[in-house]
Amino acid sequence: MQLDPVSLEVIRNALTAVAEEMSSVVMRAARSPLLREAGDHSSALTDAEGYLVAQGRDVPVHLGVLSFTVREFLKAVGRDVLRPGDVWILNLPDVGGNHLPDVKLIRPIFDGDALYAFSISLAHWADVGGAMPGSYYAAAFDCWQEGLRIPPVRLVSGDRIDEEKMGLILANVRGPAERRGDILAQISATTIAGRRLEELRVQYGRRFLQSAFKAIHDRAERQMQDAIAAIPDGIYEGTDHLDDDGHGGAPVAIRVKVTISGETASFDFTGTDDAVAGPLNTTPFIAAAGVFYVMKALYGPDIQPSAGCYRPLEVVTRAGSVLDPRSNVPVVGGNHETCQRVADAIFKALVPVAAERLSAGGPTTAGLLIFSARGEDGDYATFYEVHGGGEGARIDRDGMSVTRVHLANVMSTPAEVIETEYPIMVERQSLRHGSGGKGAHVGGDGLHRVYRMRADNVSLTTMFERAVVPPYGVEGGEDGAAFEVLLETREGKQTKLSGKQNVTINRDDRVTVMSCGGGGYGST
After folding, report:
1. Tally of CB atoms within 10 A around 457
2. Tens-digit pLDDT profile for the chain (524 aa)?
3. Crossing angle of helices 284-299 and 206-229, rounded to 10°
């Protein structure tokens, strides 16, 4: 069936609106502040084969991974076992995933007996079990220390929750009431997607929708091919570094060789360093997400995100590397730290042909702190917070202060919510003045935030980068200031915390976050 351009635009925007509504449902219905305030979740729709057709304006690294999740899910469970009213749950990195806290709920959508689409809700749970509250264990050396591993499991059948399976999951995570509330929000998001797609099917017909899915893929492929064709043919190489191996070792290199040839682009990461001991390994799906993000951000901001965008792109990883490790290694930090190294390595490679489009190095780290304290009932309240920093400067302007860039798109939790939900007071929130790198244009300033504990025995986890390797300057601009976190005990003893650490802190201890400044652009 041939679609005219107007009809295609109507369907394309309708599908995007469905994904947006899914995300709104999660933010309004979730129990945890991490989802309803910070927005650490994403929504997407795929066709019957699992190929992405629409997504919300959510977290780029999530959305890049969701381009693969349903396809890998179908490989794992097959199509014959899927039924109307099903919702499946999973978090295994091997199944089109990233790390255990990002839990995916998948609903197959049918027209009678004909499967024609899937809706997917991904949400970062504040805890999925494991060795430490918040499920980030800096000293982890295998995947089982990071939490509950959920293979594809049918959690809802005929739109009825399987309480036995729900009970098994909740018995293995901290904060089970909050986790249940978040699961129900995700189920609701997939349900509303099914309803909206049914409305579209009734109005236009299934064959029309399926033709629209194909047309969306084909148009995105052509748009990406045109974008690549505008880049001069050649081989471009770039390298970026993780601060360490997660256990305090030497910096770890992410190396990429970009080959542009006509309307295709290859991204070869085989030169990347081997898998590391700590939780900074990640999956090839994350590498592909980084590639897609860079190409869309630099050359195709108006391209509809869909599986068609990936067709002209080749992503090559090396088995045994930090981007393609064995399935039993820890990966929790790789999701939001190593993915940013992938993007920065590509940006550096493309400086010779895209300098005028690029920003200098920015806060390409989650800047993550996790505080977890037990209440009087013995249950945990876990506060998961990411911290933005200074944006890198550009050819035509200074960088913005205290923002997030590239594959991150999560909001800060308001101080009022922090102080209401957790035994923590936010004593200071201001700019880290002078932290941006100098240059013809100056990098943005980082954040200066101080937390004071109002309880004893609070578990604190750090997971951040850009503490050793700071945000880089471009075209002669200076680097920005490095990320720092300081712990001051109530007795006045001050300690600089490392980027990957688990400690216990007490009442009236203060934790000071000074996030990184952005790199400068151009010589002064």
Report:
1. 12
2. 778 889 999 999 999 999 999 999 999 999 999 999 888 999 999 999 999 999 988 788 887 888 899 999 999 999 999 999 999 999 999 999 899 999 999 999 999 999 999 999 999 999 999 999 999 999 999 999 999 999 999 999 999 999 999 999 999 999 999 999 999 999 999 999 999 999 999 999 999 999 999 999 999 999 999 999 999 999 999 999 999 999 999 999 999 999 999 999 999 999 999 999 999 999 999 999 999 999 988 998 888 888 999 999 999 999 999 999 998 999 999 989 999 999 999 999 999 999 999 999 999 999 999 999 998 888 889 999 999 999 999 999 999 999 999 988 888 899 999 999 999 999 999 999 999 999 999 999 999 999 999 999 999 999 999 999 999 999 999 999 999 999 999 999 999 999 999 999 999 999 999 999 999 999 98
3. 70
Q: What are phi and psi of 104, to 5 degrees?
A: -105, 135
The dihedrals phi and psi of 85, each to the nearest 5 degrees, come to 85, 0
The answer to whether 289 and 339 are in contact (CB under 8 A) is: yes
How far is Cα 280 from Cα 245, in angstroms, rounded to an integer?
Answer: 7
User: Which CA distances in Å does 298 have to 354, 370, 385, 407?
Assistant: 8, 33, 29, 13
Comparing CA positions, the residue from 521, 497, 522 lying closest to residue 511 is 497
Residue 241's SS3 state is strand
Task: Say what the pTM is.
Answer: 0.94
Matching residue, tokens 């570094």:
241
Alpha helices in 171-259 (DSSP H): 176-204, 206-229
- Taking the C-alpha atoms of residue 456 and residue 452, their distance in angstroms, rounded to an integer, is 11
d(CA 97, CA 72): 9
Q: Give yes or no for a contact between 73 and 106, defined as CB atoms under 8 angstroms apart.
A: yes
Give the DSSP per-residue string, 21-86. HHHHHHHHH-SSHHHHTS--EEEEEEETTS-EEEE-S--HHHHHHHHHHHHHHHHHH-STT--TT-
Domain ranges in the chain are: 5-220, 359-524
3-state SS assignment for residue 240: strand
- Amino acid identity for residue 110 in this structure: F
- The DSSP bridge pattern shows strands 264-268 and 313-316 to be parallel
Query: Hey, how many other C-beta atoms are within 10 angstroms of the C-beta on 247?
Result: 16
Positive/negative CA dihedral, 184, 37, 471, 475: positive
Those residues whose C-beta lies under 8 Å from the C-beta of residue 205, and which sit 6 or more positions away, are: none
